[in-house]
C-alpha cells in the first residue's frame, strides 16, 4: 500500500484526484494549505506528495526543500495553474519528479503517479549500504543535495550516468564519488579526456592495439576500456568524442566486448561508464555531430550540476574549506576572513564556478602574506575589477539637461548571446596574453585543459592567433 498526500486549495480537484487514486489502491490524504501539508508530511511517511504551487499561505515551489528534507523522503509532483519554464526547471533541479500544468488530465496524473511510485520503490529498495562517502564534496544547498541523492542512487546501479554542468562545477569530483560509493570502488577509475584525444590515436587509446598493427605500434597496448575492467570509465567532455568512434563505442557499451586494433580476437571488459559534458548534447544530436542512439543510452541517468551562482549559500563553506586546506598544506595558521572579503565572494558571478573559487582562494592566500585576515584587496585582480565595474555601472547614470538622472535605454541582446560574446573576447585576450601557452592560459582562467580546448573549438579560435 502506498501513501499519497495531495496539497491543493482547490477542494474539488483534491476530491477528484483522491477518488481516482483510491480506485488504483493507494491510500490518499489531502491538505488545503501549505502549513497543514508540511505538518501532515512530517507526521506520516508519504511515498508521494502532489503539491500545488500557489497556496493560500505560501508557494509550493519555495517549500520544496522542506519536503525534500523529510526522512524518508517522498517523491514530489508539482501541479500548477500558471506554469512557466523557469519554475519548471527549478522544480526539477530541486528534485521534483515532474511539473504538471492544470487543467490536469486524469490520464497524465495517473501515469506520473504510477511512474514516480515505481521509481520510489526502486529507490527505497536500493538504499546505499552505508552513508554516502562525500568527503571531498563541499556544500549542502538544496540543488546540491538533490545531486548528491542522484549520486547515491547511481552508485548502487550499473547503468551509464551522464553528468552535465558548466566548467568547474565538479563533474569529475562527482564521477569519482559515484565510483567511490559503488561496489566497483576497489577497481580502477580510468579517466579518458575526450577533448584531448589526438585524432589518429583515439581508437588505439580506447580499444588498445597489438604489436605491429600500425606504424609506430612497437608494443602491444591495452586500451582504456580494458584498463577500466571491474571499475569505472570516466569519459570527460564526451561531446568531443569523434563521431566516427561513437558507433563502435556504443557497441562496446551494449555488449561489453571489443576488438583491439590488429587483433582477430574479441576481448571482454566489465566496466561502468560515467560520462560528463558541458556541451548541449541534444543540440549536437540535432546538428548531427553526436549520435542520437549514444545520447539516449547516456541520458538514462543524468546528474545536472548547478553553476556556483545558483547555490550561493555554498560559497562561504567552500571558501572556508579551501582556506583551511591550503593553509594546512603550507604549514601556516588558518587565516581568517573579513566580512568584506566574504561579501565580495558572494557578489561575484563565478563564471569558472568552483574551480575559479578555489583558484581565487589560492591567489588570495599568496597575496596575504604577513596578514592574518583576508580582505577583498587580496582577491585576484580580474575579480576585483569585475566587482568594481558592476558597482560603478549601477551608481553612475547619465545626468539630463535638467539635472535629473536619466535612465539609459540600450537595446540589450539576449543574455546567452551577451555571455557568449564576453567569453569569446575573453578567450582572444587570454590567448594573446599567454601567447597561446595552454598551461598558463589554464592557470589564469581557472579552466581545465579540456575545458579550454572545448571553448577554443566552440569559438573557432586558433591557438596560433
Ligand atoms: N562541491 C565541491 N566541493 C569541493 N570542491 C569542489 C566542488 N566542486 C568542484 N570542486 C573543486 O573544483 C575544481 C574543479 O572540479 P572538477 O574538475 O570536478 O570540475 P569539472 O566540472 O569536471 O570541470 P571541467 O568541465 O572544466 O572539466 C576541483 O579542484 C574540485 O575539487
TrEMBL record:
PANTHER family: ALGINATE BIOSYNTHESIS TRANSCRIPTIONAL REGULATORY PROTEIN ALGB, TRANSCRIPTIONAL REGULATORY PROTEIN. Signal peptide: none annotated. GO terms for biological process: phosphorelay signal transduction system; regulation of DNA-templated transcription. It comes from Desulfosarcina ovata subsp. ovata. This is Fis family transcriptional regulator. It comes from the Bacteria. Residues 3-117 form the Response regulatory domain. Pfam families: AAA_lid_14 (PF25601), HTH_8 (PF02954), Response_reg (PF00072), Sigma54_activat (PF00158). Keywords: ATP-binding, DNA-binding, Nucleotide-binding, Phosphoprotein, Transcription, Transcription regulation. The modification 4-aspartylphosphate is found at residue 52. Residues 137-366 form the Sigma-54 factor interaction domain. One of its GO terms (molecular function) is sequence-specific DNA binding. Coiled coil: none annotated.
